[in-house]
Amino acid sequence: MKLIDILKHPSLHSIQVAAGANGLSRNVTQVGMIDAPDINDFLFEGQLLVTSGFHFTKNSHLLHDLIIGMHDINASGIAIKLDRYIYELPTDIIILADKLAIPILWTPADDFLSLTVKRLTAVILETQNTELRQIIAINQQLSNLNAQNITYQHLLDQSAKVLKTPLALLDSHFTALYASSEWVAQREFLTHYLRHESDIDYLNLLAPTRIAFNHQIIDILPIFSALNENKAFAAFVVNESEPSDFQMLRQQQVMNTLGLANSRTDLLNETDFRNRSGFFLNVMQGGLSDSAIDNYLHDESIDNKQCFRVAIIDFVQQNTIIESHQFEIRQQLTRWFISEHHLPVLTFSHSQQLVLLINEDIDTRQFLNQLFQFLNTQKKLNYPFTMGFSRISKSVHKLSELYDQANNALKLTSSQHPIMRFRPKNAQELLDLLPKQESDVFVEKTLGSILKNTELLETLKSYVFLHQNVTAVATALFVHRNTINYRLKRISDLLGVDLEMPDVLVDIQLALLLI
């Protein structure tokens, strides 16, 4: 506890400050009584030394050296019995004590040194016992709040009462999500300052930091999280430049409570991510009907007509599966980047791939280049990676097709070309790139009269792809040749075309490929 707080106790009112008053905020961890010329050899950090001063009368330099020694070891101060051997302090000693902020106290002349030590120790123990009881009560109070699963607002209000100072909860983007009541009105102001004016690298901030904000001193402390990219922060208004041990204990209790609440939030977020991954994997595997997909998208506030391009970040190198922790880091960093820039991109994991559904309004290549550069600047990543993305954009219902394009693009990547867009390998893949609305119009115009007649459509398909060989068509369909000729005549009449004309056959072949 601080020396200034100890001296406020009624039993110690007779102890006076002789010099070094600006050092009264020093913490006292123990009280020692020493009367020996080699006092410096028995100094400890936080020690309040009680002495008669006998040896200082014969060797005046010893007091000078003692003050320097106490400063070097961060002791708390010296208490000298007044009028026993020393009646006043030399001017140079007062100047030195003031300069180094080492308090020198006068203890009553009529008190035994042992009694002075006893009184000082009793005050410290009494205070420590009181503080211990308070810490236990605070711990119980905050634990009960967490058990009740209360809101962050209520938790911060109660924490502010414990600490007797306003505080705010920041997410990993330095956004003040919640604040105690006294600070609610400043949340947006605080967020803007932290994100745009503080010059703090909040993604990599792992240690407490202190800043000036709105004429106040603010301490920002990282809150424990299983994943660094999921971390949160607590911002406290500092009322004391050197907080007491008791205040630090109270602060740690609050940090532990906020850490538990933050871990619970992390768990819920990860559960949501895993559930979303499960949904998208079911869509890819054709395990959900269109209505089931639409219902889920509605519940998630996602437009079922919104079109996306798909990109895949592949974390497997040379057929070697990277360690799971590295995959988690990459996944979290990617999601952090998307959230940091407020981008309309959905994510889910598949094996050791991270799949991105990128809103069609985004310049996909520019976005992936920026993401690639960001990930490559993170020193914690130990493996290279590549990205492939689809050429077309479609609704979530066509996720399987988009994923296949992105996955094929991955096969074209290399260390020299780590980001690739899908390239069609055949006519069918090239046709698939046409906008569905346009291809549907072309198919309707070309084959509309027979689209619902499975028999005629199958006959025409065989006729086109078997090079107009009627005998081969009859054999493939297990019917008589004359039947095929009859069907072809009917198809020609319904479509109003001559099936012998090359340009007609080209249009029909394209339409059949587009179905």
TrEMBL record:
Gene3D superfamilies: PucR C-terminal helix-turn-helix domain. Residues 289-412 form the CdaR GGDEF-like domain. This is Purine transport regulator. Residues 456-513 form the PucR C-terminal helix-turn-helix domain. Belongs to the CdaR family. InterPro entries: CdaR-like_regulators, CdaR_GGDEF, PucR_C-HTH_dom, PucR_C-HTH_sf, PucR_dom. Residues 5-109 form the Purine catabolism PurC-like domain.
